[in-house]
Amino acid sequence: MALSLDFLALPLLVAAALVFVSVLAGVVSTRVGFSFLLVFLLAGILAGQDGPGGLVFNDFRLSFWVGNIALAVILLDGGLRTDFDTFRTGLKPSLLLATLGVVLSAGITGAAARWLLDLSWPMALLVGAIVGSTDAAAVFALLKSSGVRLNERVAATLEIESGMNDPMAVYLTLALIGVVLAASTAGSGAGLSALEVLRSLALQFGWGGALGLGAGFAMAELLKRLGRGEDGGGGIRALLLVSGGLTVFAATTWLGGSGFLAVYAMGVIAGNRARRQVRSTLSAMDGYAWLSQAGMFLLLGLLATPSQLLPTLLPGLGVSLVLMLVARPLAVALCLVPLRFPPREIVFISWVGLRGAVPIVLAMFPLMAGVPGAQTFFNVAFVVVLTSLLLQGSTIAWSARRLGLALPEPDDLQANRLVFGDFVIDGATPMDTLCAFYGLPVPPDAPTDVATWMREELRRPAVEGDSAMLGAAELSVRALEGGRITRVGIRLG
C-alpha cells in the first residue's frame, strides 16, 4: 500500500494558496487606499467557518504562540531600522505615550466599556488595557506603505511609541486578570498586593531593558567579528539576528520581563552599533517581517467567527469610537502639549494610534487564564482592530496631507517651493543681515544667526518642516546636520 502524503499536501495547498491570494489582493488594495493588513485579516475571516472557506479553527494556544513570535520578529525588524538620531526628538514623547498614554487610554476606554458592555469595573478596565496600546506591526507597515514622508519628530514618536508601549499593555492586562480572578474567587484568600503589582512592573521593564541592551551590544560585536557581509551573507546574518532575537524574547519572558521591550531594544542597539553589517540583512529582514505579519493576521482572521461577533458588534463599535475619538486624543494631548508639539501634529499622532494584532493577542490572555466571559474581550478587541485598520489605516496619507504634515521629496523642486517658500538661506546668516535684506522687523534681543533664533523660537528640538513667523515672513527648517539647522526656507507675505 503506497504512502499517502495528503496530510501534507492538502493543508500546505490551502495555506499557500490563502497567502498567495491575500498578498495579491493586498497589492491591489493598497492602490485604492486600503490597509494591506486589513486584507490579510479579511482573508482569514472569509476562509473561516462562517465564510466561503468553511475552515474550523479555534486553537487559541497555537494562535497565541504564533502571534507572540510574529510580534517579536516585527519589533526586531523595526528596532534594526531605528536610528539613534531619531531618539533626539522621539524618545521623550514616546516614553510618555508608552506609559502614561497607555494608562490614560485604557482608563477612559474602560469607563466606556463599563457603560456600553455593562461590565464590572475590573472587567471593563481589562477591556481598556487590552486595546490600550498601539500596534507595532500596523504602525511600521502602514507608515512605510503610506507613500508620505513625515517629519522626523512625528515619525519617530509614532514608531518608537509602538515599539515600547507593549510592556505597559501586557503589564496592565496581566495585573487586571489577577484582580478579576481574585474577585471571582472572593473568600479564597486570592488577591494582588501593591507590592506584587510594583514588583511585576519592575520585572517587566527591568529585565526587558537590561537583557535587551546587553543582547544588542553582544550581537553587534558578533556581527562585526563576522565581517561586513561582502560574501553575500546577508540572508545568513538575518537568520542569525532572528534566531538571536527570539532567544532573547523567550529568555526575557521566562524571567518575568517584557520580551517585546527586550527584542526591540536589542534591534536598536545592534542596528546602530553594527550599521554596515546590519544593512546587508535588511532586505531579508523585511521578508521575515512581512511573512510574520501575513501569517499572524491570517491566523487571527481564522479565529474570528462573525456570527459570534454580532451580539457585541454595536457595543464594540462604541468602544472603538470612544478609543479613537476620545481616549487616544485626550491621552496624546495630555502627554504632548507640555512638550510643545504643534496642534496639527497632536491631531495626526492621535489619529494614527493604530490597533492591530497586539489587542487580539492580549485578548487571548483572559481566554487562556479562564476568566469568566473572556470571549467578550476577544470579540470586542477584534471589532476595535477591524475598525482601526479600516478607518485609520486607510486614511494615513490623506490625513497627513490634509494636516500639512507630508514633506516633499528632496528632488521635487516645485513641491519644495510650495512647502518651504521661494528663497533659501544658510542657517548661519546673521539676523540683522536677513531682516535688512527682506525688510523684516528685527526681534528684540535677537541672537546672532537665523538658526539660533529659530531654535529659541521653537523651544523644542527642531526637525525638517518646523516653521516660525518673523513679521510677515514664514521661516521654515529645510535641512539639519547633527541636530543643527543648516538651511532655512523663507516665504514672504
Automatic annotation (TrEMBL):
Localization terms from the record: Cell membrane
Family matches, as SMART domains: CorC_HlyC
Recorded topology in the membrane: Multi-pass membrane protein
Domain Transporter-associated residue range list: 416-493
Lineage: Bacteria, Pseudomonadati, Pseudomonadota, Betaproteobacteria, Burkholderiales
Entry annotated with the keyword Transport: yes
MF terms in GO: antiporter activity; flavin adenine dinucleotide binding
Gene behind the chain: nhaP
GO BP field: proton transmembrane transport
Coiled coil feature spans: none
Broad class of the protein's primary localization: membrane
UniProt keyword terms in alphabetical order: Antiport, Cell membrane, Ion transport, Membrane, Transmembrane, Transmembrane helix, Transport
Protein's organism: Hydrogenophaga pseudoflava (Pseudomonas carboxydoflava)
Name of protein: K(+)/H(+) antiporter NhaP
